[in-house]
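Human: I'm a chemist; would you kindly supply sequence and structure tokens for a protein?

Assistant:
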Amino acid sequence: MADIEDEIREMVHRETRAWNDRDAEALVSIFHPDMVWPWPPDDESHDPIHWVFPQGRFDRERWKAEWQQLFDTHELMHNHREIVRVAISEQQDGAFAVVDVDTMWRSAAGGEFHWKGRACKGYTRVAGEWKLIFHTGLLQYQEAERRVAGGMSLRSLERIPIRTREMGSTTSAWRMIVATAEGRGTITLLDGGSYRGDGVFLGRSQEDLAGAYGALAVSDAPAGPELQQWG
């Protein structure tokens, strides 16, 4: 799983480098041919009833020309991207990355074009190669940022497969990613009830880890649904 997570992170970095270099050819090379890309009209439109569909299905030459026009008419002022989470399917043939984006373009006339918000980038493996197949438009999410306690801020809480030396087999756990003034760390709650700390939480006692996890969790981590809810 760690190798795949690195591959997905590299996909995000490839895209970032393409924007930085204003390289339209490199940009279109990461997309799956069946990619579709709906967008919210603004970063507060979480309800998809209001979303728009300007790009349509991936068309290599059309999309390349549109981005080349952007590159030819705008200067890139900054492009900051932070990977918040990577999730991988149990079959290891699909994954998504949650990325916080802050990108600013400026036209020759001085007009600013600001991309800012959180995106979910979905990837599929095709013939041994990862391709970007879906992408949510940038939206602002404030709920997670408000989950703070004792100088800690919850960044994400996700269900992951994990292999422990003691059990010698793969089980499931909840992994919490936390930001603190000292840096980032993770607290992993195994299904057996024990905790594991990494990063700034490395070496903490079970009591300390349980306290930090409990302070940031909105409620006890729910069990996974027996049936997938399609929608």
About this structure: Helices lie at 2-21, 24-28, 60-73, 143-146, 206-216. The beta strands are 31-36, 74-88, 94-107, 112-126, 129-135, 148-149, 152-163, 170-180, 183-190, 195-199. The first strand starts at residue 31 and ends at 36.
